[in-house]
Fold each of these.
Amino acid sequence: SLHGRVTVPGDKSISHRALILGSLCIGETKIHNLLLSEDVLSTINALEQFGASINIEEEINTTIVHGFGIGGLLQSERKIHLGNSGTSARLLIGLISSCNVCVAFEGDESLSTRPMGRVLDPLKEIGLEVVSKNTDNLPLEIRGATLPVPINHKLRVPSAQIKSALMLSALNIRGTSTIIESSKTRDHTEKLFEYFGADIETRMNIEGDKEIRVNGQRKLSPRELDIPGDPSSAAFFIVAALITKGSNLRINNIMINPTRSKFIDYLISMGAKINFINEYSKCGEDISDIEVCTSSLKGIKTEVKDAPSMIDEFLILSVAAAYAKGESRFCGVAELKVKESNRFDVIINMLNASGVNCKADGDDLIIIGSGEVRGGTTIKTDYDHRVAMSALILGLGAKNKICVDDISPIATSFPNFMEIYEKIGGKFYGG
Ligand code: S3P
């Protein structure tokens, strides 16, 4: 059984954005509890190459950013390596798209297969030019617009990365850019734009879509901010406690922004005993401690409209569904195919290999849980941090051991995952 108190690292999405916005300010931005994972280090490295000065003071968990200001980004002489980080790639493409620089981005094997056309295409409308032979995948060489024209774009894919790329581009475009989204995606960029004093307005239009207007070429104000715990990292320990007999965990300081915490609502509908304790708000985000204990779970149907708000949690939710009794259906989850790995297929293969019946039905995933998992298999992580962590949690309650071929990708988002796991009573066997 798992017991104790857990503090998960700072939120990954907010960490990338805080660094980028700090870099767009003249003056000192102070960030507490920044996630120091490989993905975020990729963003730091890129911003330093663009001229920001970023100083990590690890002993006091604080990072100081001195930025280059809106439009002050420098030409980088070297290629910029973004490792495994899709968020760095998409957000930084947006950032440079309205600046007069030429940048070469490259990434690891997984990032080099991920679609970038979804962010490049709308940015071409403002004047971004793709110089490289590749037009949809890294490595890419792109030139920002010299005279960028305001964006007016309705998102075709419900993606916070595309939305944020366009918003970041708009910050250096004279005039008003409008970005419209019809399916809700995480809204940290909107909140942080307001926090840093950008000229932004959001409203619901008559079609019921969210309209974001950004007036560009206005100064941002440097800020001090404290990043709350990442709910997507907490999700692994929440499910671990739910499926492991006699467990009781308290997870501190978790961000419960509704565009991120949908998976908790679904777990509660599955029968999870989860309590929110000590709720409060900081830097525009709602935060809570979460208490979770072992629960009998039943199958669940998730709605298409909720998929973007829990897109990073379907892997671990599939583990909960495997230990639940009855059928679960995750509706409209084709986006899982273009994550760090093809998570749609990974879920099917991982569960079937562990003795749990799982299949695709169009863009839906169906999992038939019996309350038990046979295990006795090896899961390939395929450069995907969340596959590694989900497979390790799947193995917790399985009758036979589950092996994970490579746990090194975990460092992209959650460097101290194994340490926390062992601290609360979990056991892994290496080799
Ligand atoms: C993220 C958005 C999501 C998510 C990713 C982080 C972000 O991607 O999967 O881990 O920080 O904006 P999409 O925008 O592609 O859905």
Amino acid sequence: MQGFQLFEHAATVPTRSYNTKEWQRGYRSLKEEHNYWIEEIEGEIPTELNGTLFRNGPGLLDINGERVQHPFDGDGMISAIAFHNGRAHYRNRFVKTEGYLAEQKAGKILYRGVFGTQKSGGWLANAFDTRIKNIANTQVLYWGGKLLALWEAAEPHRLDPKTLETLGLEYFDGELSKGAPFAAHPWIDPSSKFDDGKPCLVNFSIKAGLSFTISIYELDLDGKIIRHHDYPVPGFAFIHDFAITPNYCIFFQNPVAFNPLPFLAGLRSAGECIKFRPDQPTKVLIIPRDPAIKSKPQVLETPSGFVFHHANAFEQDGEIVLDSICYDSLPAVESGADYRETDFDVIAPGQLWRFRMNLESGTVDRELLEARCCEFPFVHPAKAGRQHRYVYLAAAHAESGNAPHQAIIKVDVESGERKLCSFAPDGYVSEPVFVPRAKASESGLYTEVQGAEDDGWLIAVVFDVKRDRSFTAIVDAKDLSIVAKLHLKHHIPYGLHGSFTPAVFE
Ligand code: CO
């Protein structure tokens, strides 16, 4: 068994399983757009696995050789891997944003990036230029017959799901205004109590200004915004992700301060003006989803920490239980520093924590679920907002310390059992997307768990330094054995988020 051997091999890799020079090679631009059937396959693609995995991430780490200062500033590139009757097709295309087209034409950086990229010309060229490029690089989702590339600080781009051609900006029939933010972390509620049990999409936005506003948007199966409500948030709000339950939206307001002066003066990017405040608590904002409830958000506090991503939340006996990846402090974006020279040993690792918010007493308890360095959590889609048993994450090969992600970990939050599938020392792993084995419902969504919650596959893109290109790994979600490796003809720069639809777009 190929999978078993690969797994066994990984168990013998020494603790320091990565090599910084090799890891850095995954941060090169992929300039070409491809379209081909994947021929080089180890193992077999399960014939029950049918549908399309869409992934988004920065495809360009330079503009004509001029380096982007941080990968979060790189232009969004969509990969679509379509699985059909045991075969797989790969296609990638850049999101043809206004900024992408202008910079490709000019052959140089024209916009400032949130995380450090300054346009050429130094201080004077950047001073008072607060225009930021909508880079559409964070998430991609097929919803209501539309494929949407998401970036949290501006409106979505709509793409053709088959050709990945950029069709334009999406305003949801005018419900979103020009330039309005729309977060990159929507949840699908598999059974919305506000829609007679039909699924809906829940997303949010953070609008900055003199004060901050959280907007909550809920969309029906046709992609129409059917609920929209706004809440003012006191203080600076840097919120990337949120969680839902049947009744609530939950936000972590991380303890950070923002000094806009160096940004306005052109000296620093917006991301570099954010300072983590370890002396301040994290605020937990709990907002009812029912627009008829006109109460203020309930605000709870928990000790300082920084959260980008939540795994899932659910309601239980008057409490909201939330599993999240928490860092002791915010990895700082330092001016002029080269992200490729990251010293993993001096940065706090992300770890999986469980928070319990008691709505009656207003208290928050927290407990460490998994100490291993991990990120990009994923649960069964039908468990969104419901009690889950398994969390799947990208993780470090070693049990302790901070390191690049080279493994996939499965955490059973009921029994405490863990399973690991490591690609060390040669592989660097992206977010593992869980795909159930059972067929989707009529709506084309996985709204019910049929059989066991872990009956399905994890699909991840892995950068393979030995081949100097990437492969798509299909991993059995039960025992974390490798089912197949689909070797691509090129590398895919380290990506951010992805989603799976049972619709086949090959
Ligand atoms: Co994210």
